[in-house]
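Review the following:
>
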Amino acid sequence: MVPAPTMVASTIILSDLHLGRTTRAAVSPESIAALCEPFDRVVLNGDVYEAHHPALRERGAEAWHTLKDKLMAAGCELIPIAGNHDAKAFDRRDLFLEEGLVWVTHGDVLDERIAPWSLSSKRMAQAWEKAAAQMPIHRRVSREGQLEIARLAGFAEWDLGPKDRVPPAGGTSLRKAMRDPGRLISVLRYWKECPDRALRFANTSGVQAPILVLGHSHNAGRWRRENRTILNTGAFGFPGSPYAVVLDDRGLALQAVERTDQGYQLAEKPYWLDAWDAIRAQASSD
């Protein structure tokens, strides 16, 4: 049985800020800092900034450093997790919280194409196959090995030519996909399959956490699969809305992030909330 967490550091988990874009991203690092400063711990779950895009990298890195400096000055513990857009910027690929009750990862590990809607999805699938073939079998089937394979496969998107790249002005691969019937089907299929893929990955890679927190798909929501709760925090870009996972002594919540004249605030009423006792009961039923 997983022991009960005693004092939980107040924690906010966000994903897919996409800092560096001029549109379809968080409005500013200052606005994100203001949202996060009341918390003891801030987890940024991948695609924090556009490190993979040559025309956006410098602006994105500057925004990231502004955000980091403000949060550190506020005394927040800051934990960035790498996504496919910033896989070379951050080393951490996943995170366990509260004695293993909560597992956080970006979500690019759930499909060998990394982002099925991307123009480079086939290239990333080939890179996945190559990386897997070069890895010893005992590591290839481990959680750490799968996350490393996904990281290496995602690098194929960093090498796109100018014609294949999303324009620096601020479009997104998902937005392009919505205009292409074939790629739109890929997006919708991925959204439908994502909870089951997350469950399968957890079951086959030794992740025992009853709560799985993802980003990447830009499709916020909550799903129940077997004895797991799967949460997705959406994105600050097209096509969805941003959500936050919030942890404190009361339990764990999924809350909408609302845009205001001043920046962002959490919705007063959570979209979903569960107490630690209920979450521990999920864990003990494994």
User: Anything to note?
Assistant: Confidence is low (pLDDT under 50) at residues 1-5. The radius of gyration is 18 Å.
